[in-house]
Write a structure and sequence with these properties.
Blueprint: E1 5-11, E2 14-20, E3 29-33, H1 47-50, E4 55-59, H2 78-92, E5 97-102, H3 104-115, E6 122-126, H4 135-154, H5 156-164, H6 177-188, H7 192-201, E7 221-226, H8 230-239, E8 246-251, H9 257-260, H10 262-275
Parallel strand pairs: 3-4, 3-5, 5-6, 6-7, 7-8
Antiparallel strand pairs: 1-2, 2-4
Helix pairs in contact: 2-3, 4-5, 4-7
Length: about 280
């Protein structure tokens, strides 16, 4: 696994842990946002390949990894996290900058690009949902995530067992045992109280959906979905219509494309950045 330069960035009274990879000032930068219960280590197997086209930057999102871990769900609301990320990008002060997000991190990347579109030369979304348009569906999801939060606080290890067994994470490409063990380790090392707050505060049920009428990002967009994740293939086919410069790539993988098929994903990202730099 690659080693990066660790930096702590102070935003609104909270410390965010970042890793900076690559030292080529002639290349653009890529800020990478992980999913729920992950942290920047989940991308460490990708960064060597990505330095062909960019200087990757990974971040532990609020409540995760080495970043501060508030336990109030209000701290994790959409507006607060977007504001933090915009402030962090301005502090990093790297340009041109591309933004990449997976799953929960993809939702945050999408909303951040909507809030500050001119900060990013391109947007890459892996297994991302732009939000639930139906009010009843949003209410059901909020209730589901409250139940998950209770499970996390009551018995975190039992929750992790059920989470890892979700059909969502199966893959037609098979699972890399080394990466699977790394993911399990990352999950187990998270703080349960913070994870419970995060899943409630930044639930898709509390997120305002991005629609054709509300979207305002006109730079290039790369959408990525796993062929075995039919729910998100459909979501991303619909999402492709939201952006004037979007392209959808369906790779042989499940929900975690970056884990199931990292070589193909790395090639897609490198091509996208090279074509749009």
């Amino acid at each position: 696994m690659a080693e990066g330069v660790k930096k702590c960035i102070h935003i609104n009274g909270l410390d965010y842990a970042c890793q900076f990879y690559g030292q080529d000032a002639s290349l653009p930068y890529l800020l990478m946002l992980h999913g729920f219960m992950g942290d920047g280590r989940g991308f460490s197997h990708l960064v060597n390949d990505l330095t062909k086209s960019c200087n990757p930057i990974t971040i532990d999102l609020l409540g995760h990894g080495q970043t501060d871990k508030p336990v109030d769900p209000e701290t994790y609301r959409e507006k607060e996290q977007v504001d933090h990320l915009v402030a962090l990008v301005n502090k990093i002060d790297k340009s041109p900058l591309f933004l990449y997000g997976y799953s929960m991190g993809g939702r945050l990347a999408l909303k951040t690009a909507q809030a500050a579109p001119n900060l990013f030369s391109g947007l890459i979304l892996e297994s991302t949902n732009p939000g639930l348009s139906d009010k009843k569906e949003r209410a059901i999801r909020r209730d589901t995530d409250k139940e998950r939060a209770s499970s996390i606080k009551n018995d975190f290890l039992a929750f992790l067992e059920k989470w890892e067994a979700l059909p969502l994470f199966s893959s037609p490409a098979g699972l890399n045992s080394e990466l699977s063990e790394l993911y399990k380790q990352i999950h187990a090392e998270q703080e349960p109280e913070a994870m419970a707050a995060a899943i409630c505060g930044f639930s898709p049920g509390s997120m305002k959906p991005v629609t054709k009428k509300t979207q305002n990002y006109y730079h290039p967009v790369l959408l990525i979905a796993g062929s075995g994740d039919q729910k998100y293939v459909t979501i991303n086919k619909n999402m492709e219509q939201l952006f004037p410069k979007a392209r959808l790539s369906i790779l042989r993988a499940g929900h975690r494309v970056h884990m199931d098929n990292p070589d193909a994903l790395g090639a897609e990202i490198n091509t996208f950045i090279e074509q749009n730099s």
